[in-house]
Every structure is written in C-alpha cells, then in structure tokens.
C-alpha cells in the first residue's frame, strides 16, 4: 500500500493480526518447519511429509513467506536462517513447544475479554487470573518456555559472573523451569542453588537440573513465595519474570523478603520487562504491560525508577539497570549494602 | 531486538500477534479513538470519557502507541492522522464497525481450526463454510464493510468512466452493501444498476441506494448468483470480491453467465485480491489466500493469468489487469468482444 494520504492499511493489518498467530501455530502443529529442515521442498512434496493437502500447504507456506518465516524460490520453499534455528524440531534451540504456553485457552480468553479488563483495570478472568495459587498454567509454562529462556539465562549468568574458587549461594524465586538458576550453577562449580516454587512446578526444574548435571548442588523449596520462609543467607536472590505479576506493595513485600534472605554484600537480580519512562519503548518490552492487564489483577511492566523505589523502600542500598540485548528483557541489580 | 545473529523475536511477535487484534477491538469497543478525537487527553481523562479504569486505559493506550494507532507526548495521547480519518466515529470515513464482520465468531473459529483446514485443503467449518446459502454472515458483511469499500469503489468507478450522455446498464453480482454499483450510479446520471444478492442482503444495498439518492435507477434481483437468470443485456457486469470464494470451474460457470448477460462491447469487471504469479506479493494481496483456505472449501486468491484463462474459456475476447493503489486490490477487465 502507498504511504501517501490516509490509509486504512494498518487497521486491516491489525484487525487481522490474529491470522498470523494461527498460521504460525498451524505450521508448528504440522511440523512444517521440521519437514523443511531436510531441504527445500515444493508444496506438493511438503504436503506429503506433513500429512496435509497440497493446496492447504501451498496457501499456508505462501503466507509464511509473506510474514517472514520461509523463503520461496520459484515454487520451492525453504527455511529462513531464524526458522532453521528456532522452528526445526531437530535444532537444540527449538522453541515451537512454547506455543503450548503462549496460546493456552486461559490466556486467549483473557485477551478476548480485554475490553472488560480495560474497564476494570485488571484481568476479566475470575479471581486472581493466572497468578492464582497452584494454577496448573505454570507447570505448562515451565515445560514449554525453558527453550526460550536459555538466551536470557546466559546473559543473566554473565551479570552474576563466575569465580571457580568462590562459593555462591543462590535462591531462585518462582524458579519455574529453573533455567536461570541452573545456568548459574553450570557456570559456577561452587554455586549452590535453591529453587522456590509450587511443588508440581519444581518437578520440572528438578528434571532440568538433573539433565544439566547440577542436581547435587540443587535444592528444592516447595511452596508459595509469599508464605514459605526463604531461608538463607544467599549471595544472590533471583526474581525472574515474577514481579510483573503484582502491584507495587506486593513487589515491596517480596523485596523485603529478598533483603532479609540476602547475606551482607548480596544482591537481588530482577529480570523483567522494564520499559523506558515513556512506557512505549522499547516496543517489545513496553508491550508486555498489556499481557499483565489481560491476565493479572494488578501486574505491570514497571520502569527502572519504579523498581528503584521498591528496592530502596525494602532497605536495599542501591539499584543498577542492565539491558540484555538482543532480548526484550532487562535486569535491575539491587545491592543489600 | 538486534537483527544480528539468530533471534526468536519474529516468533514471539507472531505468536502474540492476536493481542494486537484484541487491543484494537477493545479500543474500538470503548470508542477510545472517538473520545480522543476531541483533542489530546491523559489516560485519566480518557478513562472518564470511556467509562473505563485509568490504569486499564493507560496500559491499552500505551500499547496502541506501540502498534501505531496513537501518538504519546509526555503523558498525553493523541490520534495519528490515519486514526483521525478511520477510527473517530465522527469521521465520514469511520471503519470501526468493520470489526463486527472481520471478527465474527465463525471467522475466528475457522482460523482456530487452520491446521485442520491445511490438512483438508479447505475450511474446517461444516458444509460450505461462509459461502453456504443465505449465510447471515453476509448481512453483517454488508452493514459492516461498506465504509471500507468506498475507496476501492471510487477507484473502480474511475475505470468504468463517466459519460453523462450515455446510458449504462450495470449488473452488480453479489452486491452486498451495493457500494460498487451505487458509486457508478452516482458518477453516471444515466446509469441503471441491478443488484443481485440474497434478499436479506439486498435490504442493506437498497438502504445505501436510497441514501445515495440513486434509488430510481436501482433494481433488485434477489436470489443465488448461481440459480437466478441474470437478465440483461448489460454494459458492465461487476464481480467484486466474489470469485475468490470458489474453485476455478465455479468461477468459469459464473464467467459464462457474465458473458451471456453482457451486450456486445460489454465487459466484466472482477475486483479481487490478485497476487503476482509468485503468490507472495504484494503481501496484503497475496495473504488473502489464507482467509479463503480458512473459510471456504475451495476459494483462493487467483493470479491474473488464472483469471485470464477463466474468462477466455468463458468466451471473452481479452482481459486487462489494473492495480488499484493505494488499496490491496486489483481489477481484471474482461471484454466480451
């Protein structure tokens, strides 16, 4: 479309954006990317591999070319470099299973009721939304999202640093898949990680710790982060993708618990979606606030200034901001002393 | 996100694309754009106007900034030029009501079953999908989509031309809202338009003809385009956004009926989504094929070469291609002689 003069192109594109989601999901369901991983294919060849119709695969694959997931040369389709890395099931960085969590019916429903959420100022789902006690959504999360967290976990581990001679006591709050704590344990041979989460979720973290070969330095602390004693003292308390679910006073309660559990000189590392003060940049970071409006009663994408205040009120001496390019996430490092 | 190195950014963005759809729908539901039409507003002011919560409106409005529908200066939101024209209910070009059609539950369901459609090679909805006889979806379509069709209708009328002294007999097949035929009638004082569609849909076309002041040159031909006698002879037969619903043999049957109904020297004008032979450009045009896979048994976005063949086999002497910038649609003009 021309960019001259008024145009309803963005309206059309946005109101139909859900079709992109469905096309990607269908392609993952059909394992279309994995079948193309073996090499370029025509629609007819790909259809046989996917157990689908040639016509259906042709139209779907053309659409995937249009939205940037495939390349078409003549009538032959092939994977883009990103699709090769992230969407071929044979790739170690395969993320296709994350569709299971990212498109759970509860999440979809919360967005289909977004008008209601905007009126109310919080999720239209009953009760606490996705942050209700023991919501099975988090077991699904732990299983589905681990592959997508490997890159941010590596970047967070860079911030922690590694010293082969120094013991490092780490508490991973709301550990989920455990990938953040486990990555630190892999880098620091004398690190000991305690993973706190609901018991059913911790089963997934334990599997991942076993697989990473750090099980002998991995302890489980089952329960709600609000109710259990966090123990300690720890050198590092991880708050990864957790505080965004709550309002400011609740974040402060958690920051106080972190402060109490830290050893002198220790720090809390908050990995989250932390937009600029304008709350609209960077786009992929700032846009996360809408997920919190749709799915939680009072969650948000807090700015660094807001996190600074939370941790200062909880007694921390100072906080630092770290971007984690190329991810859409950031870290606040808050020092006890 | 960085564009260097492999990145799952496109995966994330696409799997969450449905959130853009829901945000836009929520904003239209709340009439947020109309309330901003009166001038820049803070979230708190806008919330009062929309009858929503300040927090909910702040998060939603920030998201609308991120996806390009609003501008934010400090903590004040205002409309973009396009939003002013198309999303303020007070604008004559308001298109917000089109969300009713574009997000009908049947359409959404057809896309949620896209994997099944790809396997089958056609809609997973029962029977004929949206092209079933007398499907009430088309009354909704006629009411909701008219505003979005005004620009293509003007461009199509340009192709027809206007000669104040010459009679012009027009058949508008599957007229729907009637906007295409009505626009030609407005431009040509001696034009007479016959609108063919199911009776319930024609009620909407008649309303629009009355409103445009062309009712005395407007006739209704109720029924199925496949079953009724098209009458004639006509100088122009309009096939707008119609052939894409069907397979090639069915398009050919309709082209034969058009040929029979045309006077010598007459032409059929097919306005549709007509991609380049690569079927992936222009993107907004080529992407329409997916809507046909999801919602119809055998519909498609046909290329010009395919339409040329259809009309040649139906007896037409020749066909011409016309792009309709800035819209995503194109026209094939097929001459009887």
Q: Notable features of this structure?
A:
2 domains, alpha/beta, seven-stranded mixed sheet, Rossmann fold, homodimer, 337 residues, Arc Repressor Mutant, subunit A
CATH superfamily of the largest domain in chain A: Vaccinia Virus protein VP39
Within the largest sheet of chain A, what's the order of strands?
Answer: 6-5-4-7-8-10-9
Order of helices and strands of chain A: HHHEHHEEHHHHHEHEHEEHEHHHEE
- Which regions of chain A contain 5 or more consecutive residues with pLDDT less than 50? none
CATH topology of the largest domain in chain A: Rossmann fold
Mean pLDDT of chain A: 94
Question: How many DSSP helices of chain A?
Answer: 16
Q: How would you characterize the largest beta sheet of chain A?
A: 7 strands, mixed
- Please name the CATH architecture of the largest domain in chain A: 3-Layer(aba) Sandwich
Overall, the morphology of chain A is globular
Largest interface: A-B, 88 and 90 residues
- Kindly provide the name of the CATH class of the largest domain in chain A: Alpha Beta
**Annotation, overall tally of beta strands of chain A:** 10
Proportion of residues in extended strands of chain A: 15-25%
